[in-house]
Amino acid sequence: MRTLLVSGFATAAVAVVAAACTLSTPPPPDETVSEFCSDWAKAICQLSNGPCDFVEASCATYQTGVCMNNVSAALSGTRQYSQPNGKACIDALNSAYGGSPSSIPASTLFALNATCGKAVVGNQGSDMACTDDTDCTGSLVCAPLLGGGGSVCASVTLKDAGDICGDPGDECQGLSYCAPQPMAAPLCVPTPATDGACSATIPCGTLDRCVDNVCQARAVSGETCMTSDDCAPTAPYCDTYYPAACTNGLTFARGSIDCNGIAGLDQSDGGTGTTASDSGSD
Length: 282
Description:
- The chain is α+β, with helices and mostly antiparallel strands.
- It has one domain (33-262).
- The protein has 6 helices and 14 strands.
- The strands form 7 sheets. Strands 1-3 form a two-stranded antiparallel sheet. Strands 2-14 form a two-stranded antiparallel ribbon. It has a two-stranded antiparallel sheet with strand order 4-5.
- Helix 4 packs antiparallel against helix 5.
- The chain is flat.
């Protein structure tokens, strides 16, 4: 009888331990888009406890909406939310916005864009149809087919000036771009010089941007921009908080443009310096 009692208690103890193990395993963080966007808002709006002067709850409501809109716009039949990548984004945001920073440099913001841009990932493999890079899996890019036949996911192949560049994924390096040739394969040819003609198919060099079909110098610090591609290396980040301008990053202080923008108190387009749907191209 004593043996049976001990055995019974042992069995019960094992059951209790098993139940405890089951109950102590929490679900992964940021498992859903809703949880991800809630944590996104908390990470960014913690600035209210430091250099910025706004109501954290109001900021969280605004930033949650920004995040939900961005993710909803990014999701499609070929793109899904990724919990591991979402968690990586939140960790990166907490690292950047935590500790009451007075500023966040452009290099960190570009890294955030790259990390958070992967919160929504594509499932299209090589040679499958796509509309942009976020449709493609892994490191594949959405590359146009020659002759206007749409685009497919492809691996990047770097090409030098003078090289043939006809395959999807071919990318001309330096001051060159892929241009069709009469009665011949397309080649990597030099980009137009400053003040030269440009278009959607004829890009400017790395120090210029196409304005009214003319290559002009990229904007310097304080000048108007739409994306970071408009900005010169000396002020590489386009701060879209109103009024949008090229800067070296975000700067926080009581009533500053960036603090007001983060809290939704400005007239900006609702950007945060990072977007869950951004491919990191800015």
